[in-house]
Structure formats: structure tokens, C-alpha cells
Amino acid sequence: MAIDQKDALFMLIKSLSKSEKRQFKLYAGRLGGNLHANFMSLFNLLDKVSTYDDDLILKKTSIKKQQISNTKAHLYKQILVSLRFNPVHHNVRAQIREQFDFAAILYNKGLYNQSLKILEKAKELALKNFENNLAYEIVEFEKVIESQYITRSMSNRADELSEEAKELSLRNVRISKLSNLSLQLYSLLLKQGYVKDDEDSIAVTDYFNKRLPKYNIAELGFREKLFLYKAYLWHSLILQDFVSSYKYSQKWVDLFDENPDMKIQNPVFYLKGVNYLLESLYLIKHRTKFNNALEKLIFDIKEEKVSLNDNTKTLTFLYLNQNKFNLYFLEGNFTEGLNFVSEFISELKEYENKIDAHHIMVFYYKIGCMYFGAGKNEECIFYLEKIISNKDLKMREDLLCFSRVLNLVAHYEAGIDYNIEKLIVSTYKFLIKMDDLHEVQRKMISFLKNLSNIYPQDLRKAFIKLHEELSQYEHHPYEKRSFLYLDILSWLESRIQNVPIEKIIQQKAKELIK
To answer: Is residue 395 very low, low, confident or very high in pLDDT (cuts 50, 70, 90)?
Structure first.
């Protein structure tokens, strides 16, 4: 019986590189009998097949039906143990934990002095790399050993360890509070979206201030600053204060530039920081700094200043391509971007199983925007339909809303207006249901609804009037986001001037001083 291809063991085996598979076979074969064991037969089979099927396992191996579950569990564990020995997966945290385990073994054998020496080195490594939780565990273990292994300096040592434990405990509590706040703000954004009015803004800021621990920036270490900037970043994004989001994402990235080793030890945090910096620069349309930040990210990846593994490779694919799309949008090079889209779609297939549905839908929206900007409206509709028809997309309701609005405009541009009335009604109802009907969207839908009643010779005047009405919202604190997802004003200007939207955006890009 074929089952879901998200079977954990099957996915783990398919994620292994050739060298990892070779190492596993060597590891498993260290005992001669293992080569013919059930778990090895299962590994060899799953390595070859493209789909997981219980019936095939029963047919091709000597594993019995009642043995499948246990054999899979055993194989899964053996693969993980093998990977643990692979140098590729070693990092500072793993080294510290390994030293901690060695110290525990020595302690259990009564070799207290040797255990303390190893713990001291492990603690130095932990503190050097801002691994405060691990450092705290080590200090607590040192206290246990010192209480049994009496030395002449015990009185001083006790004071030292007590002070170290107190300092590390305070840091860890502060880090925990800041990371909790960051996570809570992210959750708030997913549940409630961006602020829609002053009341929302006051409520979010009050929520933030009540949970922000007191701090002296000069006393904060790397991780405390990291989560502090992260919390401020989420706060500013929820408020749609994109200048502040740029400020704190830049501080986040600067923190890693000041501690370059952390790019290797904490590559995910670094990549996320750069991505938020690029997103903020895109939102404030600072093309020069955007270009510089993107080039720096590409350089860091190329020069291996960022640790690359399967996880970070997926993130670099996500972030590089998201921001390459944004660069085309900033510069208005939509037609040129179509070649990039073709290459990207081919590359996306390689990562489809590693990227969540939400991010894939974001890419579909960007692809739709690229086609729309290039005047390829039917292709735009094709990709927007993938988002609109996705019933499982629970997050980023704003993405669903703006996809529907752009879909309406693309239908109008493509001349596919036989069911546009029905489309307008369904879009309007959806926006109301999502509680995301902004004034900009309301006016857009109303305009499209009345288009059929406007004489051709009056169309230009109607576009000019709508442009005047919408322009007043371009810098509105709660309405401006509508223009960031969909450049309605440029579309209207293209209609008024009777030139492609691409030309309008390119001209605006040239006029940008920054």
C-alpha cells in the first residue's frame, strides 16, 4: 500500500547526500552481521525507490508485516547516529555537549579533577560563542563536582561559581523574555495581521511595552541584542513602520558583522536578518542599499562566510530568489524578469518538498506580478488562481486578499470580462469575510464594478479621478500597504498615459534619488 510521501524515514533517506549514504553503510557495516540485517535491506530498498510502499517492502525484503514499524524505527535511529558522527554536522554546540558528556563519564568514574578540566575548557568555548544556556549547565555541574572534590581554593571557587551562575541565570532569563516577546509578536502578526487603525496601533505598542524587559544595552551580550532587535523589528512591521523595521534589521545584521564567527555558528539567524533587512529596504524603496545588501549576501554565500547545510541551502534559495524578484519590481524590469521566472520555476521543483506551502504561494504571487508587469495577463491569472484555489492556506490572509484584487485587474486587462461581475462580488465578499477591506480596495472594486457603465471616451477621465482619490492614501499609515502589494497608482498612470505599466515603474525608479 503506497502512503503519504511525507513518511519520516523515507524523507530522511531521500535527504541524504552520497557521502552520507556511504558513511551510513560503513557505520552500519562495522559489524559484519548488520550487512544482511532487516534494517539494511530496508535502507537499500528505500534508497532505490521513488515512492514509499509497504507492499513493496514485504515483497522485496524478508521483513514481515508486524516487523515493519520496529525496523523503520531502528533504521531511523541508526541513520541519525551515523549523521551525528559526520563532521559536516558538527558545530560548536555539538562540541560543547560532547565535552559535557565526557566530563560526566569521568565524574561517574570518580575522576573529578579530569572532569573539572574538561568542563572548564567547555565553558570557555560556550562563553566565547555566547552559548549561555550550555555555559550555565556546565557551571551547575562544576558546583556539583566542587562540592565533592574539596580543594584548597574551595572558598574562592565557590564564590566564583556562584557569581558565574547568577550572571548566566540573569542573562538566560533576559534572553528567554526577549525571545518570547519576539515569538509572541510574530504570532500576533499571523493571527491579527497588521494594524488597521490608531486603536490597533496603541494596543500593539502597549502589548509590546508591557512585555519588554528592562535592559541596559551596554550590558547585553550577542544573543540578548539579537532577540531585542528581533522583537523591535516585529513590532515595527506590525505597525507598518518600515523605516523602523529597516533600522532594527540593520542592527541585527550589524551584530553579525561585528561577530563574523556567528555567521558560521548561527547561519539561520544571520540569513533571516539579512532577509528582513532586504524586505525593509524594498518596502521603503531604497534601491541603492537594497542592491548593496543583496550583493553582500551573495558574496557571503559564495565565499562560504555562512555555514551551508540542507537547511540553510533551502533558506538561501528562498531569500535570494524572493529578493531577486523584488529587485526586478523595484527597477520595473518585468519583461527582463520573465527569463528569470522561467529559470526559477525549474529550480523550484528541486525545493518543493523542502518549502512550506505558504512560501510557494508567495512565489506564485510574485510570478503573477512579474507577468502582470510585463503585460502577460493570462499568465498572471494562471498563477494567481493557484493561490486563490488553495483551500489549505491558513496564514497570510493578506496574500489571499491582494491576489484576488490583482486577479480582478488582470481579468480586466486581459479582456476576460464575461464573468467579471461575479468575480467582483466574490472578491468583495471575501475581503469583508477576511476583515481586510481597506479603503483603497473598496474604491478599486467599486471602480471596476462601474466600468461597464462608463463610455469609452470617458474612460481616461475616470482613471484620472480614481488616481486622484487613491493618491491621498499612498502615504497613509494604515492604507499604504495596499500599494506595496499591488502598485495600483502605476497601473492607473499607465492607463492615463496609454503606456505599459513597466515604463511607468521604470521611470519612477530612475527618479528615485536613493
So the answer is: low
